[in-house]
Amino acid sequence: MAKSLLDAVGQPCAASNAIFSVIRGHKRSLDVATIVQGETRFFSVLMLAWGLVADIDIESEKYRWMGSARIDFYGLQRILQLRLYSGHISFVPAPGFENYGEPASYSDESTTRQNPSQEQALKFQHHGYQGPNVELEKLDWRTISGPFVSVWLHNVPWGGEETMAAPNAKFSDGYLDLIVTKDIPKLSLLSLMTQLNNGNHVKSPHVLYLKVKAFVLEPGPRVDDETKEGIIDSDGEVLARGKGTYNCDQKALMTYNKLQITVDQGLATLFSPI
């Protein structure tokens, strides 16, 4: 988030610049995404990932002793042993992106499944903000079927100091930027990953890049081994761990199943350089 704010005004991503931004007191609005599965909610301001990006982000934790190099090291490992995931994504496209995917209708079936260990947390959540009140069934939905290499939703341009995940993302436009990778040769994927530092990866013919107002993820198992599933990651936190994943015995907020995302435009406020 700091990188996205400072880069927007041409300032280096440094703690001193961030501190001066807070001292000056300038503010800007920020969209907030509400991720829902049954009665369970998670509020996201950065991103959601499933597939390659989530696997690299979470599974590379085992190499944290390597410092920031762990991402590059494990990313190369994951590309060489590439995983494909079956599943479906559905979305409400922003104006100008209506030709992506196939027409679909909204259904909230299977979003009621939740983690029974979270009952007390759910009771508490009912006293707080529940997310935007949107009649999703009245919106124009599109769908894309897998298999997928990666599905990545972004709220701001930068996913890290060296990763411009969504170059066209805005802080409060009311949309999330969706980056989808499906069929891609390993060499092309390796080349694509080297372009993450400047955002040129979204220009690849192997990448779908569009803006969405609402989103539904129906994650499936790995294509090569249906006994193994994937990881769903949001803002650096594991939302769900499927069967056979890294640390899959640890409890997660949600189950590896269908979830939906809606966007509240400008709900949060940030200190900003200008």
Furnish the topology, listing elements before pairings.
Blueprint: H1 2-7, H2 15-24, E1 27-37, E2 40-44, E3 47-51, H3 52-59, H4 69-80, E4 85-93, E5 102-104, H5 119-125, E6 141-145, E7 150-154, E8 176-181, H6 186-193, E9 207-222, E10 231-234, E11 237-241, E12 259-271
Antiparallel strand pairs: 1-2, 1-12, 3-7, 3-10, 4-6, 4-9, 5-6, 7-8, 8-9, 9-12, 10-11
Strand-residue proportion = 25-35%
Biggest sheet descriptor: 12 strands, antiparallel
Oligomer: single chain
- Quickly give the structural class: alpha+beta
| Proportion of residues in helical segments | 10-25%
Termini separation:
15 Å
By DSSP (H or I, 4+ residues per run), the number of helices equals 6
The dominant shape is globular
- If you consult CATH, what is the topology? Tumour Suppressor Smad4
CATH C-level category: Mainly Beta
Order of helices and strands: HHEEEHHEEHEEEHEEEE
**Secondary structure: number of strands:** 12
Question: What is the CATH-assigned architecture?
Answer: Sandwich
